[in-house]
């Protein structure tokens, strides 16, 4: 999947990304509320050498200070500095704990030492920083003070006591540290950093949302687009039926729904089916699906209606003898139908029911105990041939392919099959297995139907909007008569 594909996935699953963004912002705000504020106080010291006014001595002292100032900075957090500061200020902490709050750095090519102290109290941070600076200066000067060697006492003279020797001069540190900037109580904490935490939470939420979406997309093997279905099956997608929340209550695209987007999709399916097999037009078409709940019965019923509306004399057969639903869809009688004919209790014309001027429906009849044997029997083949002789198009609704073997036995008796796949529900392995099952028994699969697909809003027909927005056309007998010859080629010459 390329970058464009990932962006499409993120756009399609934007609620997940939005929730993760809100969670990330919430986590950032919670961090701002829960983290205890920390204040930072700073003081600065200048390291100088004790020398005369001679320029050469000043240069030597400067080089000496710069050479040793890095070592001085490492002494700031030692126990020699922190222990006296803890006693002096009466701090409720140990010297080691205080050392963890102190840091020092030396700007490049300078003899300055910056001391930083962090504490939960701004005033206490300033007091600690100033006390550390004073104590640190004393420790450094003490360490740099040279130690004098003890001189031997003079021997007594026979002439008398020797005169008292003069006391040697006191040793002095060659460096001195002066405080150039006293620490003051800060007014703003350095932690938590509210904007940074919110930005970090926002970024973390975005990354989490993107990761979840990509992971879900990777683990989700269902088909989201008709292009993906065509690429998987290597079969043409003859129709993409949009999802309609009212389809459960009104499965047939008739009446007020006759001019909806969904009804137009079935008309497009009819047209594509006609042009898909121009050289060898099938008369008996099986409509099936990999698993239940993919809209195969709905597709079969509306395809039959669409063919009848185009002037093609059509017969719809309910051959799903496990869960028949065509009779309920059309409001017809189910008890007498296909199974009645197969067992020889009635003729086709005795149980055929009308659902329109050009649409006849052969319902399932009573549910038998052996549907697989009945549907693959020679008698079933005779019934289909008899229907093909009476009607221009025969649409057969059958059971799903994968759960039962009914359709595998029935499909070879037909002249073609349509495979209905539900968007975002049917797995790739299921679709592949269903297509292979039809291929193994030599069924001619005409194409696939992508059902319950998401409706692409804003992609209407030019400036006129979507087909569903068009007004209902006025009936015209002359126009209908002119259209019938062009549409009846599905059946071929009788």
Automatic annotation (TrEMBL):
Q: Which UniProt keywords are listed?
A: ATP-binding, Cell inner membrane, Cell membrane, Kinase, Membrane, Nucleotide-binding, Transferase, Transmembrane, Transmembrane helix, Tyrosine-protein kinase
Keyword Kinase listed? The answer is: yes
Q: How does it sit in the membrane?
A: Multi-pass membrane protein
Q: Which Gene3D superfamilies match?
A: P-loop containing nucleotide triphosphate hydrolases
* Database matches in Pfam families: AAA_31, Wzz
Q: What InterPro entries does the entry give? A: AAA_dom, Bact_polysacc_biosynth/exp, LPS_length_determ_N, P-loop_NTPase, Wzc-like_C
This protein's GO cellular component annotations are: plasma membrane
Reaction catalysed?
L-tyrosyl-[protein] + ATP = O-phospho-L-tyrosyl-[protein] + ADP + H(+)
Where does this protein chiefly localize?
membrane
Q: Name one GO molecular function term.
A: non-membrane spanning protein tyrosine kinase activity
EC number per UniProt? 2.7.10.2
Q: What class of enzyme is it?
A: transferase
Q: Where is this region: Disordered?
A: 145-169, 468-494
Subcellular compartments: Cell inner membrane
Q: Where does the record place the Polysaccharide chain length determinant N-terminal domain?
A: 1-89
Q: What is this protein called?
A: non-specific protein-tyrosine kinase
From what organism does this protein derive? Streptomyces jeddahensis
């Amino acid at each position: 999947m390329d970058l464009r594909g990932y962006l499409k996935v993120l756009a399609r699953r934007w609620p997940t990304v939005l929730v993760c963004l809100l969670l990330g912002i919430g986590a950032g705000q919670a961090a701002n509320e829960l983290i205890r504020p920390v204040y930072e106080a700073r003081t600065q010291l200048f390291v100088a050498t004790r020398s005369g006014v001679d320029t050469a001595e000043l240069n030597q002292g400067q080089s000496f200070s710069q050479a040793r100032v890095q070592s001085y900075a490492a002494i700031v957090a030692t126990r020699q500095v922190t222990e006296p500061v803890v006693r002096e200020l009466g701090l409720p902490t140990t010297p080691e704990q205080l050392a963890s709050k102190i840091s020092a750095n030396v700007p490049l090519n300078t003899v300055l030492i910056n001391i930083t102290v962090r504490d939960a109290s701004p005033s206490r941070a300033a007091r600690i920083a100033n006390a550390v600076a004073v104590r640190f200066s004393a420790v450094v000067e003490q360490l740099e003070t040279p130690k004098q060697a003890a001189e031997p006492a003079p021997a007594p003279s026979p002439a008398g006591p020797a005169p008292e020797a003069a006391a040697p001069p006191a040793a002095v540190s060659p460096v001195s540290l002066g405080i150039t900037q006293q620490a003051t109580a800060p007014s703003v904490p350095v932690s938590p950093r509210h904007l940074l935490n919110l930005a970090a939470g926002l970024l973390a939420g975005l990354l989490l949302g993107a990761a979840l979406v990509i992971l879900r997309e990777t683990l989700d093997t269902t088909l989201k687009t008709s292009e993906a279905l065509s690429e998987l099956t290597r079969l043409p997608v003859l129709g993409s039926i949009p999802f309609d929340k009212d389809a459960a209550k009104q499965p047939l695209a008739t009446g007020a729904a006759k001019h909806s987007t969904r009804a137009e999709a079935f008309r497009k399916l009819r047209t594509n089916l006609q042009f898909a097999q121009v050289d060898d037009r099938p008369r008996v078409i099986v409509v099936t699906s990999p698993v239940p709940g993919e809209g195969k019965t709905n597709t079969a019923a509306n395809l039959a209606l669409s063919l009848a509306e185009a002037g093609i004399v059509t017969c719809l057969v309910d051959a799903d003898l496990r869960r028949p639903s065509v009779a309920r869809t059309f409001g017809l009688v189910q008890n007498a139908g296909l199974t009645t004919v197969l067992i020889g209790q009635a003729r086709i014309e005795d149980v055929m029911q009308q659902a329109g001027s050009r649409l006849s429906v052969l319902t399932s009849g009573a549910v038998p105990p052996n549907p697989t044997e009945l549907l693959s029997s020679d008698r079933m083949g005779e019934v289909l041939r008899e229907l093909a002789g009476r009607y221009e198009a025969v649409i057969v609704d059958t059971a799903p392919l994968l759960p039962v073997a009914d359709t595998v036995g029935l499909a070879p008796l037909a002249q073609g099959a349509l495979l209905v796949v539900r968007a975002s529900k049917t797995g790739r392995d299921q679709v592949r297995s269903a297509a292979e099952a039809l291929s193994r028994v030599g069924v001619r699969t005409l194409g696939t139907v992508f059902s319950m697909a998401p409706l692409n809003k804003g992609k209407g027909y030019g400036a006129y909007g979507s087909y569903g927005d068009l007004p209902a056309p006025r009936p015209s007998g002359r126009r209908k008569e002119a259209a019938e010859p062009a549409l009846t080629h599905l059946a071929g010459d009788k």
